[in-house]
Amino acid sequence: MSMTIAVLIGTTRVQRESVKAAKYIAEFGRRIENVDIILVDPMDFTFHGDGNDPEGKDPRYTEITEKADAFFIVTPEYNHSFPGSLKRMLDSELANYNHKPVAFAGVSNGNWGGVRAVESLVPAVRETGLVVMSWDIYFPYIQNIFADDGSIHADYKERYEKQLAKLFDELVWFAGILKTPR
Ligand SMILES: Cc1cc2nc3c(=O)[nH]c(=O)nc-3n(C[C@H](O)[C@H](O)[C@H](O)COP(=O)(O)O)c2cc1C
Questions:
Q1: Which of 22, 34, 97, 109 is positioned for an S-S bond with 74, CB 3.0–4.6 A?
Q2: How much is the pTM?
């Protein structure tokens, strides 16, 4: 069974570092058999006002969420939470998230790796009907993990490849279980 996984970049900050983690995760996912990855950049979408009324949606984002069998959210931590642009994307749809699994990656330039952003995402995504995986991946001190061109430094490669393989396995497994009855 083939699966479509939407990898969500969690911020529109111009100098965002977390985009390197999101692109790395997307590239990793593209190497998995029968998995299609859509890398979703909130900068590419326009949401008029808040909420999920028809005029507040971006039809291109609606289409992606309809198509996705699973989500992988990559969030930086802003003031011990997740960015507003990520919340805006989550808010704009409801039914299209229901009964689909979601994995998280947290990012920070300090010690905590975005763990508070991920923990604060859990109650919000639970309300959308997304099914949360029981562990996450963290990128503390992101500036040490990736080079300017986005490639991962050799010291970190094995560790993150191992963690990503395990988390994608779980995400794809849940996506398969939930797809048929949905
Ligand atoms: C508005 C703002 C608030 C932030 N708050 C936190 C925070 O509460 N905890 C933390 O570990 N890092 C915080 N950071 C630093 C981020 O961890 C850092 O910018 C990192 O590179 C990931 O975010 P980025 O994708 O925007 O670069 C904050 C950054 C911004 C721009």
A1: 22
A2: 0.98
Residues forming beta bridges with residue 4, ordered by sequence position: 36
Please write the tens of the pLDDT for every residue from 70-96: 999 999 999 999 999 999 999 999 999
Q: What is the mean pLDDT of residues 1-13?
A: 96
Q: Of 25, 109, 119, 138, which is best to mutate to test ligand 1, by the most ligand atoms within 8 angstroms of its C-beta? A: 109
Question: CA-to-CA distance for 169 and 175, rounded, in angstroms?
Answer: 10
**Sequence spans of domains, the chain:** 3-179
Enter the tokens of residue 170.
């779980």
Q: Which fold has domain 3-179?
A: Rossmann fold (3.40.50)
Residue 61: count of CB within 10 angstroms of its CB? 21
Closest ligand 1 atom to Cα of 17: 27
Say whether 69 sits in a helix, a strand or coil.
coil
